[in-house]
Amino acid sequence: MGILLFIRCGYAQPSVSSYSILKATIESRRLEFQDRHAKTDGYAKKKVINEARDYLFSVIINDMFDAWYGTPWDFNGTTTTPGQGTIACGYFVTTVLQDAGFEIPRVKWAQEASETMIMHMTTDIKRFSNRPVDEVSNYLKQKGDGLYIVGLDVHTGFIFKSGDTIRFVHSNYYNPDVGVMAQDLDSYNPFQNSSYRVVGKILGDEMMRKWILGIPF
């Protein structure tokens, strides 16, 4: 699709209309997967879920994150529009998930402890207490490609692994004017400096089934 861009804090961000088109496109694809899921059974349903997961993973890390990069952080930030207003860390996570088509309580989850939010979505969880960043990196490499939510001492965000790339994507209160950014795990950021880290791999089969069928969490 053609995207109108403007520059803010060094990031190219989409216009409001292009982000609305992106959300509409995701919803259209979700309904396509829903129709295919309804017409199949057994292994064929599993195949639809796998294809839906691959699609959603790609669109979140390549399109949705790109749209949000450069949106400033504020503790009270609740914007639903990339590049306009400010966004707190929890609201960044829940807004992306809601815009990706998940029927979630955006405000409630954003205000909960990050570990509680993670437990709503997955049981594939690993906790690290006073462990080096390399230990978390090795865990992610073993788990493989995918999208994760991480809860920290006083912060939350996404981690994605794609091939050799692992990035922490979050609304960064260390650099509030830039806000949403992608960083290496061992960069100067809340992930590196947190004593406690809980990592949950999302987009599992049950989570994707709810996405396909439009089932609320």
Strand order of the largest sheet: 3-8-4-5-6-7
The largest sheet, given as strand count, sense and whether it forms a barrel, is:
6 strands, antiparallel
Number of helices: 8
Our count of domains comes out at: 1
Structure classification: alpha+beta
Account of the protein in words:
With 217 residues, this protein is an alpha+beta fold. The protein is 45% helix and 20% strand. Helix 1 runs antiparallel to helix 2 and helix 2 crosses helix 8. It starts with a strand and ends with a helix. 39% of the residues are buried.
What's the short version?
The protein is of the alpha+beta class. The protein is 45% helix and 20% strand.
Short descriptors:
alpha+beta; disordered N terminus; 8 helices; globular; six-stranded antiparallel sheet; two-stranded antiparallel sheet; 217 residues
Write the layout of secondary structure elements.
Blueprint: E1 5-8, E2 11-14, H1 16-38, H2 43-68, H3 89-99, H4 106-111, H5 114-121, E3 125-129, H6 133-143, E4 146-151, E5 156-162, E6 165-171, E7 180-183, H7 190-193, E8 196-201, H8 205-213
Antiparallel strand pairs: 1-2, 3-8, 4-5, 4-8, 5-6, 6-7
Helix pairs in contact: 1-2, 2-8
